[in-house]
């Protein structure tokens, strides 16, 4: 199997977190590579990637609520499309995450999940991943 | 060609985004490496790197405007140099970006560009890049 | 020596930065690898990693002070554990940092140090690192 690929997803709301951990873990396993570094990349400019707690969905809701307080939603932005807050949130979260891989498994912490962060949905989205051999 | 190098740039304003995509793409092409991961690293503590929309310059202006609302610019900070907001923005944007490379090309999304984020200019700056073979 | 490992640390305060540069540099040196990319990974969901100025400790204090202004500390969050601000700060700082390595040395800028960012201490913590050969 190639050590790079794409995961497609569809978001349902304007802002939401989508847990992509299982899809990335499956892709890593399918490569047959035991040890390395998995980089997940988001090619969209109004979405991001983050790693945070997945056990209690309230954490995801709280992060999204906080971002809407942190980012000035009613500022007189100049970008005519009207989605400047989504662009700003994208840069605050970041465009990629890197996770160590050992024995074919993502070395996430006990409570960690990888989240695709939609800030301007709903949309069809994709993330790309690459597994670098360690 | 070596798979690592430096891109020099000069910033003109206190805060500005500088599109370094073409310079990084050229450096990647010059290595002759087809597939891998390009890591771009910022060695400065009052600047950062981000990937966001490059088509409409208003997006860059809006992100910079938002950062000046998000970060408390008039807080009684203790760092005597007076540029604590620039240090904070540096950590919010991050010190590196990672981009997948396929067939010698950065795998950026349609609207994405790589931006050097100046928060305490004008200055002579540099970014370092490294291409890891996939 | 293996090219991956763990650094243990104990934090003393609710929020603090811990400079882990020397520990990561020593780990990199012990691998015997000259050139590559060092990825440092934080497996905790109420902590993060950042690279910023280490010369004046006031910068660390100012970043922590700013984060407590940026993140709404008294928002009616829904996560019952009461540490949602720490989760949000974790995502703002990010879960990993990547640093180029040349001649066995981390290629940090003159003033840069790697900081573990505790947002919900005091706790026993760990970070994992991996050195990818360039």
What topology emerges from the helices and strands here?
The structure is a homotrimer of 134-residue chains.
Chain A: E1 4-10, E2 16-19, H1 21-31, E3 36-41, E4 47-53, H2 57-70, H3 84-93, E5 96-102, E6 105-106, E7 112-118, E8 124-133
Antiparallel strand pairs in A: 1-8, 2-7, 3-5, 3-8, 4-7, 5-6
Give a structural overview:
Three copies of one chain form a homotrimer. Helices cover 26% and strands 37% of the residues of chain A. With 134 residues, chain A is α+β, with helices and mostly antiparallel strands. The first copy, chain A, has one domain (3-132): Sandwich (Jelly Rolls), CATH 2.60.120.460. A five-stranded antiparallel β-sheet of chain A has the order 1-8-3-5-6, with helices on one face. Chain A has a three-stranded antiparallel β-sheet with strand order 2-7-4. In chain A, a hairpin with a 2-residue loop joins strand 5 (96-102) and strand 6 (105-106). The longest helix of chain A is centred in the middle third of the chain and has 14 residues, at 57-70. Chain A is elongated and about 50 Å long. The interface between A and C is medium-sized, with 34 and 31 residues.
């Amino acid at each position: 199997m190639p050590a790079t690929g794409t995961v497609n997803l569809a978001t349902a709301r304007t802002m939401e977190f989508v847990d992509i951990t299982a899809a990335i873990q499956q892709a890593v396993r399918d490569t047959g590579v035991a040890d390395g570094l998995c980089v997940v990349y988001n090619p969209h400019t109004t979405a991001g990637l983050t790693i945070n707690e997945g056990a209690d969905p309230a954490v995801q809701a709280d992060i999204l609520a906080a971002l809407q307080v942190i980012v000035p939603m009613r500022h007189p932005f100049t970008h005519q499309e009207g989605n400047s807050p989504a662009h700003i949130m994208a840069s605050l979260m970041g465009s990629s995450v890197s996770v160590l891989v050992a024995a074919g498994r993502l070395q996430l912490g006990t409570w960690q999940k990888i989240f695709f962060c939609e800030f301007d949905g709903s949309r069809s989205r994709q993330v790309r991943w690459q597994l670098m051999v360690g």
